[in-house]
Amino acid sequence: MIKITEAFVEDIAKIQEIAHITWPITYGEILTSEQLDYMLDLIYSDEALSKQIQNKEQLFYLVSDSESVIGFIGIEHHYKNEAITKIHKIYLLPETQGKGYGKTVFESIEKLALENNSKELLLNVNRFNTALNFYKKLGFEIKETVDIEIGNGYLMEDYVMGKDILK
After folding, report:
1. Rounded to 5 degrees, what angle do the CA atoms 62, 57, 141 make?
2. 37 in helix, strand or coil?
3. What average pLDDT does the segment 44-61 reach?
4. CA 87, CA 68: separation in Å to the nearest integer?
5. How far apart are the C-alpha atoms of 117 and 127, rounded to whole Å?
6. Is the pTM for the entire model greater than 0.85?
7. Residues 141, 162: contact at Cβ < 8 Å?
8. Cβ partners under 8 Å of residue 88, min gap 6
């Protein structure tokens, strides 16, 4: 049984712990270790997460099974003032893969999106991330290809993927 609960500033250490476990596995063969460290610090520092949580730039949720926290998500409803929920972050511990947890988490995100009058889910995925196939199985389609400068000479080379959630 998966439980999704809102995360707060006091949960930052748990979010950082999961990010530091999942990122090297997810991006270790895609990014240099220098870019990996740079991005983790940029996105998951105490200051960055506190700002995002306190200013409600993103709503953070912890994902738990019956025993412990196994992941987190960061979403934004009304993205760019449209009927879109943007999934900024979704990371589950590697040992959860293949157990249906990811699909369950996406169903929960879709439910939250619909409750907030969204018609579409949107996410960015690195063009070389193996999760791309998982997202396609869930009904996401590539909408565009983007290169996003993040400083220090680094780029995020992503696909923007979308899924219509109105039945």
Report:
1. 75
2. helix
3. 95
4. 23
5. 29
6. yes
7. yes
8. 58, 74, 75, 76, 123
- Looking at the chain, the whole-number percentage of residues with pLDDT higher than 90 is 96
> Would you say residue 167 has pLDDT above 90?
no
pLDDT digits (tens, 9 = 90+) for 118-135: 999 999 999 999 999 999
Distances from the Cα of 40 to the Cαs of 20, 62, 158, in angstroms?
Answer: 7, 18, 17
Quote the longest CA-to-CA distance of the chain: 43
For residue 74, CA distances in Å to 30, 34, 60, 80, 84 come to 22, 24, 4, 16, 14
Q: Within the chain, where are the H helices? A: 12-27, 33-44, 46-54, 101-115, 131-137
Q: What percent of the chain has pLDDT over 70?
A: 99
Indicate if the pLDDT at residue 1 is higher than 90: no
Distance CA 15, CA 69 (A): 9
